[in-house]
Every structure is written in C-alpha cells, then in structure tokens.
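Hey, sorry to bother you again with one of my protein questions. I've been staring at a protein lately and its backbone has me curious. I owe you a coffee for this, so here goes:
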Amino acid sequence: MKKPFFVTTPIYYVNGSPHLGHAYTTLAADVIARYRRSLGEEVFFSTGTDEHGMKIQQKAEESGMEPQAFVDSIAKEFQELWGKLNISHTRFIRTTELDHKLAVQKVLQELYDRGAIYKGEYEGLYCVGCEQFKMPGDLADGKCPDHNTVPELLKEEAYLLKMTEVQAELIRRIETGEISLKTERYKTEILSFLKKETLKDISVSRKNVTWGVPLPFDPAHTAYVWVDAFLNYLTVLGWDGDLKSIPEEWPADVQFIGKDILRVHATIWQAMLMHLDIPTSKLLFTHGHILSGGKKMSKTLGNVISTDEMLEKFGVDGTRYLLLSAGNFGDDVDLTPERMIETYNAHLANGLGNLVSRVTKLSEGLRESFSPEVPTSLPEDFQVLLNEYQLADALLYTWKKITEANKYIDEHKPWILVKTDQDAFEVVIKKLLTDLSEMTLLLKPFLPETSEKIEKALKEGKTEPLFQRLV
C-alpha cells in the first residue's frame, strides 16, 4: 500500500487575526491536496493553530481575557476563514488540545531520558515578537528586522536541547537533499548559516511563562513554544508520542512554511527528530513575503490588503486566483489593488467568464446537444508544474488555453458559420466544448467552485455569468 500523501501548513500563531500571508500558504497547500486527490491518491492535509507562549499570555492580558478564551476566539477566526476560502483540510489541530499536550510531555520526557535535554542556564537576545532567541548577525542596527524592536538580553535557568552535536549530520542531510529545502536560495542560506555559526544548545523551556505545556520532569518550567508547536506535524496524525508507532504518513511529502520560520524548522525541528531517531523532514518549501507596491504590508504604510476585503470584492475563486497567480511559490509576490482588478477583469471576467458564456450561447445552434467527455487524466506537462509546486506557472498554462480558445472563436466566427455552413459550425463548437471540458479539470484544484459551474453549464447548455467585470 502506498503511504498517503501528507501536506502540511505551519500552524499559525494566534496572537492576532489571520492575514493574507496565512491565506496564501494555506491556499497553496489546498491546491496540492486537491491535485493529489485528483490523481486518485489518499491525502492527509493538516493545518491549525499554535496557542501557547509568552506573547499569547501578554495579548490575553491586554485584551482582559483568560488565555484559553483568547486563543479560542482567534482559532475560530482561522477556522471560519478556511471555510470561506474553501480549504479542504483533513484536520485542523490546536496545540491546546489535551491529546497534543500529553504527547508533547511524553516526547519531552523521552528527550530528557536520552540526555538530549539537560538543565542549564541560557543567555541570549530574545525577541518576544518572534518568540525566538536572535544571533547578533540577525539584527539590523541592533533591532529585530521583522518587529523593529530591540531584543531583551535574557539570562535564566532553562532546559537546553543539544544542538552542537547534531550540527555536522544536519549539514550532511541538507547537502545531500535528504532534507530538501526549496527553493535553492533558501538551501544556500541555511547551509551558509550552519557552516558559519556553531549552533548553541537551545532553550526548550521557560520558567516565568505559565501559559504553556509543563515539563513532566520539572513542572516549574513550561515547554518553549516552538518545541510544542513542531510536534503538531505528528500529533495531527493521531500520534500519542510513542516512538514505537510513528504514523505511516510521516515524513510529510511537503511542508509549506514562511521564510520567517525557515531557520527554526531547518535546525531545532530537525535536531529534535534526530535525537528521537524519527525520520527528518523530507521537503520544506518556503514562500517569500507578500508585498504591496514593492513594500512589506504594514498598517503604518497603509498598504495592508485584507483577505476579507478580497473575498467581498472578488469572491472565493477570484481571491484564490489572484493570490495563487501572483508569483510562483518561493518568490516574493507583489499585490496592489489596481493590479488585482486589472488581472481579475482580464483573466476571469473577460477571459474565462466570457469564453464560457460565448461557447454555451453558441452551442444552442447545434443540431443535437453535445456533452463532451471530461478527460480522466491531466496533461503531463501540467502535472510536471504541479509536481514541482509551480502553482503560478500552472495557472499560466491554463490561462494560455483560455486565450487560445477565445482566439479560435474570433478566427472561425461560428456566429457566421451557423448561418452559412452548419457542418463546419458543429466541428468548431464541439472542439470548443471539448476544450472547456479539459479546462474544468485544469481549474479544479485552483478554482473548485468555478470548475463545477462550468461542468454544469456544459451539461445544461446555459450559464450565469461566472465573474462580473469590475470597474
């Protein structure tokens, strides 16, 4: 039996409402999950929320709420947004679930028993915003570049995970591709870091943070949020922390992550797995930042684009198309309201929508109704693009088919043929209906609702406008 295809998103930190970056990563994973299912594969697609740590404790206090009530409210926002975006996840995991916490404790005990965790003292520059210790080289003018804050120098009693002793093996696995890092620039970046810096043994516990999983061997400490969060990739599969029964789905076939969490995934997470003799990650696929007008989105600049606003303006499939076509996963993508309206009108309203409307209307001139067979397999060159996670290129492939079909109509002028040469008209329309049928298959992972509407239109010979032109 072939193991199920396992795709993961990061679990998102619930210190605030979901934003466009979260939606982008989750949509990419959704497309791959839907594509793999279309190949007849069993798929496990996981996503969820990361709900412990000092930042959550602080945010809950600021909101005048208990931490559990605070995380419940934000987790609900994520679940609701994934519903609106038509995300087809198998399971949504939350790190405050009892089963997850018990498994985390079992793993921590195992690491301690193996001598991979020991009690010591940790000193370092800590950014609360990142919930990470920073190396001096990570800072810009002494500040965290992501949060523009000066990290605090922390020195406290902590339990440490041995990192130095697995460093050489970690480098070997990344160099040989056993742990594959996409794209190449991220692999280069991590290897450069690993070869330049000796990894310090890293803190896996905090003594003054109550909102976390208590260490089973020292309840005065709670697990450092990353250690707790990483284990979701196994506990989401129902794993209880028993090393004798690692789920068959692991390692994941692809783990989608943002570049701000690449280093911890490529180092701390892999070190934990190595200490536990669990297979390391197979593929960490990192996406860039979503920019607006060449700049990172920020409230100060007033260039934040909200997912809810996009859904209201462009609809579900319009939003999915605009995010996924903006650039290949792995590159920074740049979105502006003006460019999105332009793309929406050109590709969806005038392109796809107009094509479906024209063909279904023209098909009324056929002597007998014609229902083309939906192809059973995707074109090989299209599959190659999705196998390589080149989502924007796969949409471009589909867009070219739409453009060719519209051009074919303009060249053959079926509205004239229907009056002058019925046989030629029939050939033209049947070809166009067959082309549309193939397009439904290409669009299905990306625009599932639209794909269904086109299938219905082909059966019934009529359609409502798929995308309303925007001004």
